[in-house]
Amino acid sequence: MELIQQNPDIAAYLAAGEAVDHDHPLVRATADRIAAAHPDAYAYAEAAYVFVRDAIPHSQDSGDLRVTWRASDVLEQGTGICYAKSVAYAALLRARGVPAALCYQRLADDDGSNPVVHGLVAVRLPGGDRWARQDVRGNVPPGVDAQFSLEEERLAWTVRPEFNEVDYPVLYDEPHPVVLRTLQAAPDRPHLWRTLPTEL
């Protein structure tokens, strides 16, 4: 699948925004801490990926009822769903000059019911000529094995067209408006679960 930048200017994928607030002191401090041990761009991108995937639990897995949507809030509260964790990873990448985009899949149950939009991040290392999608949701349930990879994708789930699942090719510099509105309007995760977007 060819990934398509919504904004043709690569600088948009380095900018700070409302959700991807990598100019926030906490985001900067977290990025600096990771970079101190992993100064190389590739090593940093992988270490930041593992940090967000493993050290920040998905709120469904942990039972946390809070809803986060800004990168700084995700890092401060240590929780978020896939959309929020993706925003945090994008912010950590941009804080170190690595272009990062938000992108999405449409997933469903094994019979095609209960569709939901799932959030991912695309990374483009300096000097690279292509985007590579990453999934920081967290490797739960058992059997899910998302890994950082710039070559062959190692996402949590591969879409199944027979169940009307979709890989959306567009790369966004901020969360898709439908996603962002849903997060901002949710007072808690049970409400969020009832209002998650089913398509873009």
TrEMBL record:
<dbReference type="Pfam" id="PF01841">
    <property type="entry name" value="Transglut_core"/>
</dbReference>
<protein>
    <submittedName>
        <fullName>Transglutaminase</fullName>
    </submittedName>
</protein>
<feature type="domain" description="Transglutaminase-like">
    <location>
        <begin position="29"/>
        <end position="135"/>
    </location>
</feature>
<dbReference type="InterPro" id="IPR002931">
    <property type="entry name" value="Transglutaminase-like"/>
</dbReference>
<dbReference type="InterPro" id="IPR038765">
    <property type="entry name" value="Papain-like_cys_pep_sf"/>
</dbReference>
